[in-house]
Amino acid sequence: MDAFIELDRVEKVFDVRKKTGFLKRERRQVRAVDGISFTVARGEMVGYIGPNGAGKSTTIKMLTGILTPSGGRLRVAGIDPSRERTRLAHRIGVVFGQRTTLWWDLPLIDSYKLMHRMYRIPDARYRENLDRCVELLELAELLDVPVRQLSLGQRMRGDIAAALLHDPEVLYLDEPTIGLDVISKAKVRRFLRELNAEQGTTVLLTTHDLQDIEQLCSRVMVIDHGRLMYDGALAGLHEVGESERTLVVDLERETAPIDAAPARVVKVEGPRQWLAFPAGESAAALVARIAAEYPLADLSVREPDIEDVIAKMYAGSTPGHTEKAVS
Amino acid sequence: MGSGRLYVAVVAGGFRRYATYRAATAAGVFTNTVFGLILVYTYLALWDEKPHLGGYDQAQAVTYVWLGQAIFAAMAIGGGGVEGELMERIRTGDVAIDLYRPADLQLWWLAADVGRALFQLLGRGVIPFVFGALVFPVALPGDVATWGAFLVTLVLAMAVGFGIRYLIALLTFWMMDGTGMTHMTMLAGFFCSGMMLPLNVFPGALGDVVRELPWSALLQKPADVLLGEADPWRTFAFQGAWAVVLLGAGRLLQSVATRRVVVQGG
Amino acid sequence: MVDGLRAYRLIGGMWIRSTMAYRASFAMTTFANFAVTALDFVGILLMFSRVKVLGGWPLPEVAFLYGLSSVAFGFADLAIGSMERLGRRVRDGTLDTLLVRPAPVLAQVAADRFALRRLGRIMQGALVLGYALTAVDIHWTPLKALLMPVMVLSGAGIFCAVFVAGAAFQFVAQDASEVQNAFTYGGATLLQYPPTVFGRELVRGVTFLLPLAFVTWLPAAYVLGRPMPLGLPHWVAFAPPLVAVACLALSGVAWRAGLRSYRSTGN
């Protein structure tokens, strides 16, 4: 397979000054990214997850040419991002979840017209791409609305369209569903799936929402303390992390604790019971069994938190010295 | 008693908050010193041409310049006090939260502004003033009483300065775009406080008018007390009267405005 | 370079349209901008209401300096004045969004918040300059006439260099944006008064160290037929274009260094 994104022992070391007293300052080096290697093939859709401060954004910033790596080798589409930032810019699309790049006081369409000219997109390509994004992201009625009047979900859809008008070969998304309601999340996910399937766009996304990964990514990478801790399928991550989903069961009346191995009851509160089961298992089979044997009224499934999964994954094996005092 | 302690804590909080901006403070000291240098030379040329202009001699004029640079930030003569934050809270509606605090809105912000002013007086004022006094001939009083009276005028100036800016900030309840207003405040501050040129140099009727406006309480009046050109008690009375009028007007406007919020916010 | 100008034009155009979304506020701030600078000149008028000359210069000649300095600074401020906000962009991380665009960052930052209201300062300076030209008795020669526009353009260039260098400094010290006010606004204020007012050391400093004297003092002394400051030869009056180019080149180097340090240290 042709490696579209290549990282070979990439490092990023920051000098951080910390106040330790009234006038005293301590300088220390923080290894935000500590020797990460991976490759992503063209057309892959990869989730990049990890706790806050793990080095996710730093990696994305190096991949997009914002930051220069302190060590290692990094190529995107054969280009060294930090050296040829503007050449790379034509081939990548970036969506910063928390920071819109749309023009606040102007109608949405104006931001797209700017992209059209700034990226020198041929007119026909621009029309075609815009029409497709407008249709799939349901933007038709928003084009003439000033961006400041859009809801968070509408703005995110608008931002995604803005990042795609110049036909990027890879799309980086930093927390694309953060703060969105369920319907908006679903719209964004459906669009990304279609983009990847039909245009073959490579997608790399960071997220806190395991459902994003579950519904979009065949591959997930976990980063913690600047190191790549896991690289593989989501199911495998659940296995390694022994993560559990929770089934919340509401019964018609109080009963004895439900017996449905491998699920185990972790909490009972009147007619409501909480059952933990391995995240890799199908919930459907479990529900069917419970429904057959117990007076079921209602139920819901809770996903494990990324932080929990990772914490369990590395319980007892905390990676050591990531911060070293220098002076 | 209990509430008194609360406001002291707010003052301390305001002080500490501004104390964290070290680089900004250093930058401000530098800028004030540069502007002081430019002004001092123009004043020296002016007083060279006309000694005893406005009743000052050269040393007094020089002292006036450095005093202006020293208290410019503390008195927020060009804006830049807590009113910016208050305006933002009014605009976003967060002010409604402040209204539910067990504290008086005006006193709360006054305390925060006094904390800010105290820090900026020390952090941004001392160095330019000492620099000016060391490099140029200045006229400083030798007696403790004058220095004491001067300090009182500074405290009163803080109250007047806050009074003006609080009124302006409250106008945000009625006018949502504050940029134009902020500009105008800055304009009035520069011109009418004597920051640009001592008010006693202003000619004729214009001079008579600006010397009675509240802005003269910010720089001109404290300077005159420090330079021994004004009677301290009359100055206190002038500043105190303006402080009472402005803070009173602020209260009035505040009660009108908060009624609006309560009605709107339901 | 061409790419940069193109991006500048595109982004500047967007900002103009953005401000036009609030016409009333635009009118008010343009007027305020005009008034703030006008008040500056009122201060000088007040001084001259009490004296006939300042540092040996009468009002029309001071107005000549004032007008030239204001217009030159005004053009620089209009073109790239928003660069003083760079520190804020570094702090809140929005600089990153500019770094993923296929255009030079300098051009994007320079065009950021492009504000036509800054025409207020230029208009006010031009009015004062117009008054000065009618009131001052200049022995015009073709060379002097040619020097006038050259002076304004070079002056704007020198001030632009100060803005760029100031922004470059903010990559290192994000909270210290006020330092550059001392050189931009402070410099413009300094140049509004005759050089004879200031101490010799200060005049030397702004001639050889931070060459603001080339914006007005040196060429204006030549046009007015006054003795050159510091006893410099007359040909120095024609140096401003060279000085401007040198300053811009140096500030460009500083900008590159600043951006490189940002990209290697992040935020």
Automatic annotation (TrEMBL), chain A:
InterPro entries named in the record: AAA+_ATPase, ABC_transporter-like_ATP-bd, ABC_transporter_ATP-binding, P-loop_NTPase
Domain spans labelled ABC transporter: 11-250
Main location class: membrane
Annotated protein name in UniProt: ATP-binding cassette domain-containing protein
Cellular compartments per GO CC: plasma membrane
Gene3D superfamilies named in the record: P-loop containing nucleotide triphosphate hydrolases (3.40.50.300)
GO molecular function terms listed in the Swiss-Prot or TrEMBL record: ATP binding; ATP hydrolysis activity
Organism: Streptomyces guryensis
PROSITE patterns linked to this entry: ABC_TRANSPORTER_2
Keywords: Antibiotic resistance, ATP-binding, Nucleotide-binding, Transport
Any one GO BP annotation for this protein: response to antibiotic
Recorded topology in the membrane: Peripheral membrane protein
UniProtKB/TrEMBL annotation, chain B:
Transmembrane segments annotated in the record for this chain: 21-44, 64-82, 121-140, 146-174, 186-206, 236-253
Top-level taxon of the source organism: Bacteria
Pfam families per record: ABC2_membrane_6
UniProt entry keywords in alphabetical sequence: Membrane, Transmembrane, Transmembrane helix
Name under which the protein is recorded: ABC-2 family transporter protein
